[in-house]
Amino acid sequence: MGLDVGTTKTFAVIGQKQRSGTLHIIGMGTAPSYGLKGGQIVDIVLTVKAIDEAVHAAENAARLRVSNVIAGIAGGHLQSHSERADVRLSPNENEVTDQHVNAVVRSAAMLSLPEDRDVVAVIPKMFAVDHLRDVPDPRGLVARQLSVDVHVITGATNAITNLEHCVEQAGLKTHGTVLQPLASAHACLTPEQRREGVVLIDIGGGTTDVAIFVDDACWHIAVIPFGGSMVTADIARGLRLPIKVAEALKIQHGRVDPWVKHDESTVEVPGFDHGAPVAVRRRDLGEVITARMEELMGLVRDEVTNSGYFDVLPAGAVITGGGSRIAGLSTLASGIMEMPVSLGRPQAISGIGEDHREPEFSTGIGLVLTAAQTGPTNNMLSNAVRSQQSPLGRMSGWMRSALSPRSP
Fold it and tell me: Is residue 265 part of a domain?
């Protein structure tokens, strides 16, 4: 089961691997989230309630009970940085093995790790063997020194522990965790996009995740503390509406296309006065949403530019997540980002109807896809799944195989 605990909703999805190796989705469940703020848990009881409701809905649809979940990790507590490490090979054992690869990646991961943070993912970008650089897989090569450049993502220990605690309180066991933007990428991006160079923009309720993929590897991840719930709050304040009404108005009538500023037509929605109808001009609604989305896309562009990878993204950007379902957003983002932008939906998978092939379900579906394809200790995208042990032991999942196992 994949479990996406988000700021505005919790989504559980159960998949079953077929004899052919393909994945079949047999159950899904959604529940509103009220215990998170900015992607971080602030109320244990409310979060456990949301997990329990979503999981039970998925179990009822699947007609079975589950005990283990692959949970997504996100939130403003995540930080990333690049590191480089080297290991010397013995003259008597100078052929690079899995053990050498694991040792050099582990060494890079542990550099500059504060006591209050855990390694969530270590993403090898490229290896070097002696003076030969840009080696995608060094195993089997003869060398005196093995080097690696990695992207390290860390999370606040307390935030990660709180998520695990909530899962346990709901009667489940966390079998592993995966970075949410990597899960979303697994669901939405094509192999060609990841190989040629693309930036994934996952707009959640409380945060927006930015993940850059080049050469089929994630080279950069960042979290912007800005999500769809802020747009909803702007609508509620600016148009003086209840927050639930503002959210429904955003989803059903939100637009950021160039013509909305000339649209004088109105939409009637319930107001504060015992639900008495209030007429909202589409122009006013569009102005509020456009201002916030322009600000967000400007922040994303700045992040991509500062990463140094802006010029190596021929596949442009893919926007996904619940906050992406605003008409005209791809066009608006394309103008600000100065690159092609498309809307990312989960790939077609057996058992998923068109109503669930929507951006807000990308992370949950990506979680179960990742678990089915690679297992909880070997994430193809980043080896980002952590086993649940001590702070060092939590890295054992990706340490068992910094690269995918070789075929016999």
Answer: yes
Is there a domain that residue 226 lies in? Answer: yes
Q: How many domains does the chain have?
A: 2
271, part of any domain: yes
Out of 323, 344, 365, a domain closes at 344
Range of the domain at 106: 79-155
The count of other CB atoms within 10 Å of the CB of residue 167 is 24
Backbone angles phi, psi at 105, to 5 degrees: -70, -40
According to DSSP H, which parts of 170-242 are helical? 180-188, 191-196, 228-239
> Nearest-CA neighbor of 33 among 62, 12, 64?
12
CB 159 within 8 A of CB 40: yes
Are 151 and 102 in the same domain?
yes
According to DSSP, residue 75 is labeled S
Residue 297 lies in a domain: yes
Q: Quick: pLDDT tens for 156-195.
A: 999 999 999 999 999 999 988 888 999 999 999 999 999 9
The C-alpha atoms of residue 43 and residue 158 are separated, in whole angstroms, by 13
Two tokens, residue 256: 């950021």
pTM for this entry: 0.85
CA 375 to CA 207: how far, in whole Å?
A: 27
